[in-house]
Design goal:
20-stranded parallel sheet, 26% strand, 680 residues, alpha/beta, single chain, rod-shaped
């Protein structure tokens, strides 16, 4: 009704009405509806026995219903309050209706008790509104309300039913600190222009902030949610704080946008009992959400479009931290973009974790540093096609299942543009790094793989620290696997290498030298029956070892290593030793056959007679007699002649050299050749 058509209630008339209400009389609705009350309306402490309606009325002065009790329904629909409205400690035993009311002054509902429903749709609060300490035994409905001043639900405020704030607007601070809502909390398509404070709030059922917009900082620290936390397509423009939040159900954030460049997204120590979904929604997910939200509000086209935004990847423009957070189900971040630092240190995910490329081809991208230090994943972790622009730290991470970093379904390779560290991580399944590009230093130091580690076509542009790695399965390489820097394999172990002929890819870049990697590879090859390859590994290892032996000040180790090399090929090339033995015997045969007076008769050099001319077989036998470290009967009575001189040296000198070489080479042959024959 227009203002000019409303009847004015003068102060005298108002006094009469108030007195009749105090006396317990039933005041007719026609006396209170469509009226203008010029003076203050005070029912402080009054008990109202009958239903009362002020619909379409206008209060020009103060309205004070503090400490009053309304036994029946109260109706303030479409009422305007020009001055303050005080409902402090008001008792409402039945429903109250405030729909489309306008509070131009302060509205104080603190310590109110509403045993019936609290209907307050499309209400405008021009100044501050206070509901702190109030107790609502049933649902409250503030749908489409406009709070132009601050709103205060903090403290002991308790709502036993649902709290409905869909499409509400909060121009200033909205404070729900410590409130309790025993039903659902519905804040879909709400707009918070200033601080939104839900710290320590307790909600027994689902919480919906679908399409909500937070222009100021959003505080959800220490919240306790008995159902799902649904922030589908929500916008966070300053900071989002969920530290130590406890959510019994799922955390659903598809299409959410964390737009703050300077603010933070903080889920430190948060606990999500079910699934965490921060990926892109499928068509069935969209349909399900549209059906869900339509049960509580009639969606506009714009709101339907906002829900459709769930198909788009989530973007975190500021710093993100999930340190020490816990997820009872899966954690899904497919297609997400992290513009700045992302911290998942000590996060616990009881099932699988997904950071892969989403189905439409949007790749998960970490543009800042990312940390998964001491993170725990009860299932597998999937980084297929992910891009890491800066340092990535996975040290001490524990993954019970597979760790997948291979190329995604769109052909995008996983790439690390900066240093990456997996030190002391534990992968309970397979570590799949096929096609991964490591452009800076990479460390797998101390990583434990319970199954295979796959490096097919992996590209390591800089140094790779693979020391102390324990792989209970196969180490899988390929022709495309590339090591362009140093590879540290000290103390690393694995069950086998596939394909086996690519073992040299590892050894070609091995630095610093250590004997253990060669021993490990040699044992691996021998277990598969590849003794010749194992001998080659041993040989290469000994050659690398010889380069580490210093010539000065102690030259003997260097000398012995050199002799071991040239005489036997470090024990794995027995034909080389046989060649030396054959050479010495052939040289002795030639010497004693062709050199004049090289052999004389006699027991020793002091009892000699005429020189003896011997045939080639006799010369060979004489050479064998002096070469072997044992006595043989061949050539008895013959000795080298001390008078026969070749190159200024007597024959006895050459015989002595032959004897010394025999003492060295024959025992060496006895030690080396049986082992070589056994390997054959």
């Amino acid at each position: 009704m227009n203002e000019e058509n409303r009847k004015v209630i003068t102060q005298e008339n108002l006094k009469d009405i108030i007195q009749r209400i105090k006396d317990g009389e039933d005041v007719d609705d026609n006396e209170l509806t469509d009226k203008v009350f010029e003076s203050d309306f005070v029912l402080n402490g009054v008990e109202v026995q009958h239903p009362i309606s002020f619909e379409n009325s206008h209060f020009m002065g103060l309205v004070d219903l503090s400490h009053a009790t309304f036994k029946k329904v109260v109706n303030f629909k479409n009422v305007t309050f020009e001055a303050d409205a005080l409902f402090v400690s008001l008792m409402l035993e039945r429903d109250i209706y405030l729909d489309r009311a306008t509070f131009k002054g302060r509205a104080d509902f603190s310590n109110l008790t509403a045993q019936g429903a609290f209907h307050s749709r499309s209400v405008t609060f021009k100044q501050n509104a206070t509901f702190s300490g109030s107790h609502f035994h049933k649902s409250v409905n503030f749908e489409s309300c406009h709070f132009e001043g601050e709103i205060d639900f903090h403290g002991a405020t308790e709502i036993s039913g649902d709290a409905i704030f869909n499409r509400a607007k909060f121009d200033q601070r909205a404070d729900f600190y410590g409130a309790t809502i025993r039903g659902m909390a519905l804040f879909s398509f709400t707009k918070f222009k200033d601080l939104a404070k839900f710290t320590a709030i307790a909600i027994n059922n689902d919480t919906e902030f679908i399409g909500a917009v937070f222009e100021g900082i959003a505080h959800f620290d220490d919240i306790r949610l008995g159902g799902d936390a649904i922030f589908w397509s929500a916008d966070f423009n300053q900071g989002a704080y969920f530290g130590s939040a406890r959510v019994t159900g799922n955390g659903l954030f598809p299409g959410a946008r964390f737009n703050m460049c300077d603010g933070k997204t903080n889920f430190n120590s948060a606990q999500i009992g079910g699934r965490w979904f921060c990926g892109t929604a499928s068509d069935s997910d969209i349909t399900s959400m549209l059906t869900r939200i339509s049960r509580t509000i009639d969606l506009t086209n714009e709101e339907s479009e906002i829900i459709q935004r769930g198909r788009k990847p989530v973007i975190f423009k500021g710093k993100v931290t999930f340190a020490v957070a816990q997820f009872g189900g899966q954690a899904v971040f497919v297609g997400a973009t992290f513009e700045q630092e992302a911290n998942f240190n000590s996060v616990r995910i009881d099932e699988h974790a997904y950071f892969r490329t989403e189905d439409k081809g949007n790749r998960t991208t970490f543009k800042g540093t990312v940390n998964f230090v001491a993170a725990y994943v009860g299932g597998g972790i999937d980084f297929k096609g992910t891009v890491f622009k800066e340092k990535a730290n996975f040290s001490s991470m524990h993954v019970s299942g597979n760790a997948l970093f291979q190329t995604d379904h769109k052909g995008n390779v996983t790439s690390f543009h900066d240093e990456v560290d997996f030190m002391a991580a534990h992968i309970g399944g397979r570590g799949d790094f096929r096609d991964v590009r490591f452009k800076q230093q990479t460390s797998f130091k101390g990583v434990n793989f319970d199954l295979d580690i796959c490096l097919e076509d992996a590209y390591f542009e800089k140094d790779l620290d693979f020391s102390s790695v324990s792989c209970s399965g196969m180490l899988v390489l390929s022709d495309g696997t590339a090591f362009n820097g140093r590879v540290d394999l000290r103390n690393s172990t694995y069950d086998s290498i596939e394909p086996i002929d690519l073992w040299e890819k590892l050894l070609d870049h091995l630095e610093p030298y250590d004997r253990q990697p060669f021993t490990q590879l040699e044992q691996t090859l021998r277990r598969t029956g590849e003794d010749r390859l194992a001998d080659r590994v041993y040989y290469i290892g000994q050659r690398r070892h010889s380069k580490t032996i210093r010539l000065w000040p102690t030259f003997l180790p260097k000398l012995f290593n050199f002799l071991y090399f040239i005489l036997t090929g470090y024990g794995v090339r027995p034909l080389l030793l046989l060649g030396w033995i054959t050479g010495f015997l052939l040289g002795g045969t030639i010497f004693f056959h062709y050199v004049d007076e090289a052999i004389v008769t006699g027991v020793d050099s002091s009892q000699i007679s005429e020189p003896v001319s011997v045939s080639c077989p006799q010369a060979f036998g004489f050479a064998v007699k002096h070469f072997l470290p044992i006595e043989i009967p061949f050539g008895e009575g013959w000795v080298p002649s001390p008078e026969s001189v070749v190159l200024g040296l007597p024959s006895t000198f050459f015989a002595t050299i032959l004897t010394i070489c025999g003492w060295i080479l024959v025992p060496l042959a006895i030690a080396v050749i049986p082992g070589a024959l056994k390997r054959e």
